[in-house]
């Protein structure tokens, strides 16, 4: 199994997959989707054309702030109040006149792409939606909690000239995220097997009293785990047992709850004896075995998948490129590279969803490559330069590349937030 | 967007009024500071022959940030400078941030509210000598006098707080606007540059009037050249044509930044007479020791032995006020800084000294060398800073910082 991006493997697989996400995670039954579409069609009224011919002209702002329009959100009046459509930067003050909370989208009437959203608009409240609209046809879509979506009248904006609409995208639904989530779970399952093998090698070396071999075996085992970042949330407490640091532990490196890779690392690089390390190494080996055995019964939340696309490397910036997680091995940069690999795998599975949505994908790919080149330049003949030995310029380069990458990956997380469409 | 331009045009008029108002300070303290206050949150025009933030009257809050460029080639450097220009143009005008819908996190941090006020923000960009090394093929375009800042005899420089490829001076009426701008620019340029060091500064309010005081209790910057006098600025601040500088540098200015720790506990144990003789001014009024008012000119000719204003006092060494030294004057734009405590429990505060000049050797370096060994040096420690060349201004919406340099 190659460790890096797997475009082909990321395609949705026809087989049913090992573990469907639990229905508890779903916000509403999937079967309603078809019905909701019908209902939405039923309440959509005819196209309302209002050109940019209102008295105030086409300027988005004549009096020091963006133009405001109050719009009603409710089952019988989704979008009511938008009478004088004008192009440009503007604010819709959304008033929920119904008795239930609702989500509201401003959509492209043709494609369903969303220009703006307000989530959880409580009954009786007003919240602002800021958008930029160019020429086109738009419609508000109201999604009351526990009821079908309602699409308001289509409103045509004209006279916008060169005004370009703000960016929009078709929402990603829970259903959209299930295939990549299943595929990623399956990939993780294979990693847990690999993790057990490599952690066993580490434990065996400690058992034999061969600490040089143990130091050599530590990194390969640890890196397998460091590639699995999107699953840590699902691992629950096991993650702290396997890869926790001394953060929050009263007695630091002497604390009885300091366990896992970093506990073993601390001992291996601080002259601890093999006999004192047998316990921690064995406990680690048992923990990863338990993880492997329990994984097939685990359910990843599809909402995690997109979020982790940037969170894995956020952690890298916070904990690896600062050296926070170094307990003696000086391998933060190797870990950063493993985190990058893990991000690539995840993006590979999300790629079918992103291709039609995210215009920034080529940029993300290029910064992934660039960051990888930078990180790889710190490895020579299998030896990774400790963070503290980088020159200032080298360190700035690593921080810079990774910093740019997380800025871009944040868009993936925003875009793949689970949304309803019906 | 039209909104941004409208704000910019309104802002230009407002900033012109602010400059005029601040200029009155010398003549009439009370009325003028009220006028300056009323206008300081308006927009300062970003476009012009010179960058704003140099002759702009010092806003209350600042951050001076040195960056190292991580762009991999000249094209990326140009992209970086274009991006800084775009962000500075928006931030200094103020306006409504781009709504990005569901495609991205919010485009603005929101720390200034949903609509970004200009708050008198200026963003001033300079280039350090290291930008002209072999990375971007700019060696032949180095400003004639731009070097790495040397260590002067009384300095104790810390490499972590020195130099840098680019300097960005953020100044605004309020600290939140300064931090908002820094955060915005950093967010848009992560792949192109990294912060090397940063120092935040503030200008104290007049106490009780006149030029604001530094941490030593003295008014600082009284004798600055008049920023309203365009010919004086052309003589002292701006690099002009035919000066021997590369053509691209016309309209720019040499920027010197010095991070100067003030040993305020030590200073507070010094008698008032000694303090005043070190500066050459009365602490209470800011007047030269031979005068009554802050704005009185010292009459050195009548005090050749330094009986009243010691020959080694700061004002006398810095600016002897002779015809020969008139062209050595610098435009000071200093801020106070405060960064907590040192390891011994002493206050870590001092001066974020910044000055602009046409000619480094003729002006800052000459003055700095003349000041070597002045009595004041026992109470200060210059530990950081750098030499930069403030780029020429951005002419209009299509222009960008460094365009001519990279052409």
What does this protein structure show overall?
Chain A: Keywords: Signal. Chain A: Residues 183-386 form the Imelysin-like domain. Chain A: This is Iron transporter. The complex is a heterodimer of chains A (422) and B (407). Chain A is of the alpha+beta class and 422 residues long. Chain A has helices spanning 7-10, 32-43, 174-208, 211-226, 232-235, 237-243, 260-268, 274-294, 302-320, 332-355, 361-376, 392-415, and strands at residues 48-49, 67-73, 88-96, 102-108, 114-121, 126-133, 136-144, 150-151, 155-157, 379-380, 383-384. Chain A folds into two domains: 7-11 and 174-415, M75 peptidase, HXXE motif (A middle domain of Talin 1, Up-down Bundle); 32-50 and 64-157, Sandwich (Immunoglobulin-like). In chain A, the strands form three sheets. In chain A, strands 1, 4, 5, 7, 8 and 9 form a six-stranded mixed beta sheet that branches. In chain A, helix 10 runs antiparallel to helix 11. Chain A is elongated, with a radius of gyration of 26 Å. Helix content of chain B is 26%, strand content 18%. In chain B, helix 1 (2-23) runs antiparallel to helix 2. The longest helix of chain B has 22 residues, at 2-23. Chain B has one domain (2-406). Chain B is built from ten helices and nine strands. In chain B, strands 1, 2, 3, 4, 5, 6, 7, 8 and 9 form a nine-stranded antiparallel beta sheet that branches. Chain B is of the alpha+beta class and 407 residues long. The chains are: A alpha+beta (422), B alpha+beta (407). The A-B interface holds A 59-61, 65-66, 88-89, 114-117, 128, 130-132, 166-169, 171, 357-358, 367, 392-393, 396-397, 399-401, 403-405, 407, 410-411, 413-415, 417, 419 and B 1-3, 6, 68, 70, 96, 98-105, 114-115, 187, 190-194, 196.
């Amino acid at each position: 199994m190659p460790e890096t991006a797997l475009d082909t493997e990321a395609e949705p697989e026809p087989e049913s997959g090992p573990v469907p996400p639990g229905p508890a995670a779903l916000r509403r039954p999937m079967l309603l989707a078809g019905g909701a579409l019908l209902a939405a069609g039923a309440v959509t009224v005819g196209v309302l054309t209002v050109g940019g011919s209102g008295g105030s002209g086409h300027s988005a702002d004549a009096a020091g702030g963006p133009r405001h329009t109050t719009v009603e959100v409710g089952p019988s009046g989704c979008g009511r109040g938008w009478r004088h459509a004008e192009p440009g930067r503007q604010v819709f003050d959304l008033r929920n006149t119904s008795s239930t909370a609702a989500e509201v989208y401003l959509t492209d009437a043709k494609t369903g792409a969303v220009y703006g959203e307000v989530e959880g608009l409580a009954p009786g409240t007003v919240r602002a939606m800021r958008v930029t609209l160019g020429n086109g046809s738009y419609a508000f879509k109201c999604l009351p909690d526990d009821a079908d979506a309602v699409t308001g009248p289509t409103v045509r904006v004209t006279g916008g000239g060169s005004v370009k609409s703000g960016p929009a995208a078709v929402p990603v639904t829970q259903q959209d995220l299930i295939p990549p989530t299943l595929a990623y779970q399956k990939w993780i399952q294979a990693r847990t097997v690999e993790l057990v093998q490599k952690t066993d090698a580490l434990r065996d070396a400690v058992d034999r009293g061969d600490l040089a071999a143990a130091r050599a075996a530590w990194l390969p085992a640890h890196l397998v785990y460091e590639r699995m970042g999107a699953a840590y949330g699902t691992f629950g407490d096991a993650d702290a047992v396997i890869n926790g640091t001394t953060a929050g532990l009263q007695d630091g490196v002497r604390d009885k709850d300091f366990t896992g890779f970093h506990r073993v690392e601390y001992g291996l690089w601080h002259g601890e004896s093999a006999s004192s390390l047998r316990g921690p190494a064995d406990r680690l080996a048992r923990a990863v075995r338990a993880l492997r055995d329990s994984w097939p019964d685990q359910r990843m939340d599809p909402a995690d998948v997109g979020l982790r696309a940037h969170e894995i490397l956020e952690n890298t910036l916070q904990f690896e490129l600062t050296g926070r997680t170094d307990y003696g091995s000086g391998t933060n940069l190797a870990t950063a590279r493993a985190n990058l690999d893990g991000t690539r795998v995840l993006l590979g599975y999300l790629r079918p969803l992103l291709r039609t949505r995210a215009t920034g994908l080529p940029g993300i790919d290029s910064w992934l490559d660039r960051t990888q080149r930078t990180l790889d330049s710190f490895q020579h003949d299998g030896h990774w330069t400790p963070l503290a030995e980088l020159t200032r310029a080298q360190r700035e380069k690593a921080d810079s590349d990774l910093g740019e990458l997380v800025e871009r990956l944040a868009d993936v997380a925003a875009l793949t937030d689970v949304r309803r469409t019906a | 967007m039209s909104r941004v331009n409208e704000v910019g045009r309104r802002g230009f008029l407002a900033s012109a009024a602010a400059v005029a108002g601040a200029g009155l300070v010398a003549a009439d303290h009370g009325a003028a500071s009220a006028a300056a206050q009323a206008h300081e949150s308006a927009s300062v025009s970003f476009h012009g022959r010179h960058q704003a933030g140099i002759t702009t009257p010092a806003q209350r809050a600042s951050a001076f940030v040195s960056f190292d460029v991580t762009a991999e080639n000249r094209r990326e450097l140009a992209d970086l400078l274009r991006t800084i220009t775009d962000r500075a143009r928006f931030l200094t005008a103020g306006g409504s941030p781009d709504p990005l819908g569901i495609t991205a996190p919010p485009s603005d941090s929101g720390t200034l509210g949903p609509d970004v006020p200009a708050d008198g923000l200026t963003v001033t960009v300079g280039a350090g000598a290291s930008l002209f090394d072999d990375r971007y093929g700019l060696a032949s375009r180095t400003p004639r006098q731009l070097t790495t800042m040397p260590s002067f005899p009384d300095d104790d420089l810390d490499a972590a707080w020195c130099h840098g490829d680019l300097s960005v001076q953020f100044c605004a009426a309020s600290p939140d606007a300064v931090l908002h701008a820094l955060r915005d620019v950093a967010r848009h340029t992560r792949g192109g540059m990294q912060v090397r060091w940063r120092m935040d500064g503030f200008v104290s309010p007049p106490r009780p009037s006149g030029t604001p005081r530094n941490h030593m209790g003295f008014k600082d910057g009284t004798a600055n050249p008049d920023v309203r006098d365009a010919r004086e600025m052309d003589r002292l601040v701006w690099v002009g044509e035919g000066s021997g500088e590369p053509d691209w540098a016309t309209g720019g200015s040499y920027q010197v930044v010095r991070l100067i720790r003030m040993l305020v506990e030590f200073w507070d144990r010094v008698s008032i007479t000694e303090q005043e003789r070190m500066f050459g001014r009365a602490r209470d009024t800011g007047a030269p020791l031979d005068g009554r008012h802050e704005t009185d000119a010292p009459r050195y000719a009548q005090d050749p032995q330094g009986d009243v204003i010691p020959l080694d006092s700061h004002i006398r060494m810095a600016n002897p006020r002779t015809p020969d030294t008139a062209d050595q004057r610098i435009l000071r734009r200093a801020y106070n800084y405060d960064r907590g405590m040192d390891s011994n429990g002493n206050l870590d505060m001092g001066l974020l000294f910044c000055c602009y000049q046409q000619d480094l050797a003729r002006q800052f370096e000459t003055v700095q060398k003349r000041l070597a060994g002045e009595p004041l040096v026992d109470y200060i420690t210059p530990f950081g800073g750098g030499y930069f060349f403030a780029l020429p201004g951005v002419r209009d919406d299509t222009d960008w910082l460094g365009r001519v340099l990279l052409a």
